[in-house]
Amino acid sequence: MNILVTGANGFIGSSIVNKLVETKQCNVKILIRKTSNIERLKENIDKVKIFYGDVRDKESLIEPVKSADVIIHSAAVLRCIEDKTYYDVNYLGTKNLVETIVKHNHNLKKFIFLSSQAAAGPCEFLNFKSSDENCTPVSHYGKSKLLAEQELKKYSNKINIIILRPAAVYGPYDKDMFIYFKLAENGIIPTFSKEFYIQFTYVYDLINAIEKIVNSDNIYNKTFFVAEDKCYSIDEIKETFEKVVNKKIKIVYIPYLFGYIAAYLNEKFYKVVYKKPSEFNRDKLAELSKSYWLCQSSELKNYLPDFSYTSLIVGLKETYLWYKQNNWL
Asked: What DSSP string describes 195-260?
């Protein structure tokens, strides 16, 4: 089986590639840009076939797409200097890819799209959103992912399209959770919403789900949330971090206006000084300021009965240990 992974150098993409190589059950091909940092792939880079290209460049997609039996599309941008880039990469890039498949690969068995809970948007109340409920994304990232989902569904009569919407993904190499651990070690956990509930997705659970979907014969044109079944309040998150870092932590509420000003200034500073997007920006604030990020993630287990989720306390302990062992903290 030939499996093509786009965005293979990213946090999730590299984890997918490394797992697939370890199984030794398929030929792994990757699509990356010539400027991509392949540090996370260094142990397996000689075991994969590399295609250099960009989802924004249709011509560069033809060769990698031609011989693929399964495509796992994880190429995306999470943060941008200009909002337009979200749509150019996440939406139009996906459109380019699926159009190339239709034209150049008539034997594709599966197209697995790494979308996001951000595409569905938050809930209004403390209820769990199902995969077929109305989507209300609040960020450009979420809106661009939803547009990509909608574009893909136009081709569901020609391609078996499986859409995965992971919640807040964390694990080794994750920069977002790293920031929270740094804050936790300094005794604080910030929140932009006084009532805040969220679900998490351990990266290795997501990779495990993808591997099982690749090998499954009974999943066709489905959309799944991928997240631990349990939701966590901001107080429970604080208590979990306290157990992991073995330190007392205080929740610090930051009013939206202060957060907006900080995000705006942070964006401008990074743009001028570092010529790159900031980790904390207004798009991220748009998500963090909403109270209920909840989803029904049990449906996936109806198709994968032997699949289970890792609890936050276990996942955070493993992630924290990795940060320590690799001198991130």
From this structure: S-EE-EEEHHHHHHHHHHHHT-SS--S-EEEES-S--EEHHHHHHHHHHHHTS--EEEE--HHHHH
> Based on the number of CB atoms within 10 Å of its own CB, is 326 exposed (0-12), middle (13-18) or buried (19 or more)?
exposed
Say if CB 60 and CB 34 are below 8 A apart. Answer: no
CB 281 within 8 A of CB 78: no
Residue 268 has a CB neighbour count (10 Å cut-off) of 11
Question: What CA–CA distance (Å, rounded) separates 284 from 63?
Answer: 35
Phi then psi for residue 101, to 5 deg, are -60, -50
269-272 contact pairs (CB < 8 A, 24+) = 270/81, 271/81
Residue 223 CA to residue 6 CA, distance in Å, equals: 19
CA–CA separation, 318 vs 323, rounded Å? 9
Domains in the chain with CATH codes: 2-171+199-227+294-309 (3.40.50.720)
In this structure, the strands spanning 232-233 and 197-198 are antiparallel
Query: How many CA atoms within 13 Å lie on the side-chain side of 117?
Result: 26
* Region label for 238, one of left (φ > 0), alpha (ψ between -120 and 50) or beta (otherwise): alpha
- What average pLDDT values come out for the chain (329 residues) when binned by 10 residues? 98 97 95 95 96 98 97 98 98 99 98 99 95 97 99 98 98 96 97 97 98 96 97 98 98 98 98 96 98 96 94 98 97
Q: Rg for the chain (alpha carbons), in Å?
A: 19
CB of 109 closer than 8 Å to CB of 218: no
Phi, psi of 163 (to 5 degrees): -105, 125
Distance (Å, whole) CA 104 – CA 55: 15
The SS3 assignment for 98 reads: helix
How far is the C-alpha of 115 from the C-alpha of 164, rounded, in Å? 6
- d(CA 264, CA 285) in angstroms, rounded, equals 10
**Residue 24: DSSP 8-state:** T
